[in-house]
Amino acid sequence: MRLKCLTIFFAVLAAASLPRTAYAQDFAYDSYGVYDPNSKTDWDRGPANGALPTDGAKVHDKIGGEAAGYTPPATCNFNSTKVEHWAQQWSIGSTTSGAGALVQTDTLQKYIGHADHL
């Protein structure tokens, strides 16, 4: 999993006694896609964020399914019907999305019953 590599990278920075390293997440919105254009999905991607880690140099990232009240309705049964996907980028050196040195790219994928980093 790419996230594990990123976590290890930041852990190595911390082990080298370097100062905490600012990081930022950015979404490539032009890469957004839905699998069924007729589904009229209104699922939320959430905001990209950046921070200065408070626990050494570890970066935590998680993606969830969707809250109640959106179309199509999400479930908690690991239904693997694909709903939407978009590109995610991680940079270090700044807490501003799109700034800093790019260190990782991946795809965030939401399914009806769960979500994943690809």
Task: Describe the 3D structure.
The chain has one helix at 2-15, and strands spanning 23-34, 50-51, 82-92, 101-111, 115-117. It has 118 residues and is mostly beta strands. The chain has one domain. The model is unreliable at 1-17 (pLDDT under 50).
Map the helices and strands:
Elements: H1 2-15, E1 23-34, E2 50-51, E3 82-92, E4 101-111, E5 115-117
Antiparallel strand pairs: 1-2, 1-3, 3-4, 4-5
Give a quick precis of the structure:
The protein has 118 residues and is mainly β. It has one helix spanning 2-15, and strands spanning 23-34, 50-51, 82-92, 101-111, 115-117. It starts with a helix and ends with a strand.
Strand content: 25-35%
Mean pLDDT, all residues = 76
Question: How many β strands by DSSP?
Answer: 5
Spatial order of the strands forming the largest sheet: 2-1-3-4-5
Helix content: 10-25%
What would you call the quaternary organization? single chain
Radius of gyration: 16 Å
Summarize the main sheet: 5 strands, antiparallel
Structural domain tally: 1
What attributes does this structure have?
disordered N terminus, mainly beta, 5-stranded antiparallel sheet, 1 helix, 12% helix, 118 residues
